Amino acid sequence: MPRQNYHSRVLRSYMTHMTIRDIITPPEDLDFTSLIDKLSVDIQTLHAIRTTRYLGDRGHVAKAGNLHLAWVYAGNPNDHGRFTNMLRVSPYVFGVLLDLIKDHEVFSYSNLIPIVQTYIHDHAKRLHLELYKQDPTVKAFVHDLLAVENNAVRSAIRKAIFLSVKEKTDLKTFSKKIVNGYHLPTIPSTPQKDIMACLALMRQVARPLAKKASTRGGDTGFWTNLEAELDDLFEKNGNNRDDSKWREWEQDIIDADDRRYLRRGAESNARTQEEIDAAVLVGPASGSATVAASAPGSDGEDGDAQGLEERDVNIPGLGDLAALSVGPVVRDS
Questions:
Q1: What is the mean pLDDT of residues 232-243?
Q2: Does the pLDDT of residue 276 top 60, yes or no?
Q3: Domain coordinates of the chain in residue numbers?
Q4: To 5 degrees, how large is the angle CA 149–CA 152–CA 154?
């Protein structure tokens, strides 16, 4: 039997109501005027059912080109049909599947490369990398490049997080630096709250680790601890990042970060002349500026065993240049 639409189901329900009503109250027991009134009401009701475009409550339907809409649909029973149309399974079945695969290594910061490889394979034409699917040499070259870039980006992000903790950089300033360096495709003028909250979480995880002495090639435990924190948060707040629980968490962790670092901004304004000289030193042989200050320790987890390259100026060693412009330069006597 073909599936009936909502109008047909409502129409059949009202006709069933009419039948039961006439059995309980036979029309022949009514006077002529009451019978005409009842017939008129029935006709108008049936006509309204057939001509009304939307019989049910028409709530707001979220629309966007992102998968996060699935969590919006899952949270509203009236939208479960849309969830099923999008993902081809019910919210309950999808939740069971997520629970079964949540511990798989693919959902790990330590295993990002296969995810990118799958994306390139599925979007090769769009990325103008059709040869990736056809030529083994090109595929191997891309994989090597991904490994290098993955290690470099992970290392740079972790070092930036550690340095912001050590320098007590306020969250807004730090977020702008990260967004300007990594956000695609467009750079927002003001960092979004969810981005700032994630960076605040990273700083919270990094705080006890940044104080420890690290060894080159060692594991600081940053990415592992971060994943554990994220697992706890999603277990507590659910998968819908638009939920009020997540919004409350974002505000709470941003406020906590501001209480810790924002009031201490003035403390890191002062730089001794020796610190500035250590950041910019003239090499004895070439006369060019070389790096003298060291970055936070490298670790094996982000694959960086190179340390800082030689550059003209070690900007992290100088700290916040904006702070230097308003803060005193203290010369030790």
A1: 85
A2: no
A3: 6-51, 69-101, 271-330
A4: 105
